[in-house]
Specification:
Number of helices: 1
Strand order of the largest sheet: 3-4-6-10-11-8
Radius of gyration: 23 Å
Distance between the termini: 33 Å
Order of helices and strands: EEHEEEEEEEEE
Helix content: under 10%
Structural class: mainly beta
Oligomer: single chain
Strand content: 25-35%
Number of strands: 11
Largest sheet: 6 strands, mixed
């Protein structure tokens, strides 16, 4: 679909919900786009990183892990800064919402291991690691991104 410039809009399309015909290379009308849709795209762009009013990620540093964790409840955050009092295992996280993503960062001085498909956590809370082995978050900066896959009902490490 070609770009439509405001100066090229047909007369009378000042209304934000007006429909503007779009044409293909042969000059045939193929689709229609509303100016409201263009406005919404511009609005969303302002909220992205670098935009005029970007929405910041929510960062949370929960209480230090003092034991291995099964069915661990993540705080409401995009970035979770984990710390452990000794080397710890996490066998699963309480099920998220479809497509929910979280960045886990180990900020402590001990490794935190995310266990692959551990039966110690409820099936919908388990973690799937691509290589079917455990994922170790190294001390002082090890990190992983997890995305909740509602179809598989698992957290997927990516």
């Amino acid at each position: 679909m070609p770009d439509v410039k405001i100066s090229q809009l047909p007369a009378g399309t000042a209304n934000a919900n007006a429909v503007v015909p779009a044409t293909n290379a042969a000059g045939t009308t193929t689709e229609k786009v509303t100016l409201g849709g263009i406005r919404d795209l511009a609005h969303a762009t302002r909220h992205q990183t670098g935009g005029a009013d970007a929405v910041a990620n929510v960062v949370n540093s929960p209480t230090q892990l003092s034991a291995d964790q099964n069915n661990y409840t993540l705080p409401a955050a995009d970035i979770v800064r984990l710390d452990a009092s000794a080397a710890r295992n996490v066998t699963g996280f309480v099920a998220g919402t479809s497509g929910q993503a979280v960045l886990l960062i180990n900020v402590g001085s001990h490794a935190i291991t995310l266990k692959h498909q551990s039966a110690s956590s409820t099936d919908v809370n388990r973690i799937v690691v691509p290589w079917a082995g455990d994922l170790v978050l190294a001390a002082s900066g090890g990190a992983a991104v997890l995305i909740y896959d509602n179809t598989a009902q698992r957290w997927r490490a990516v």
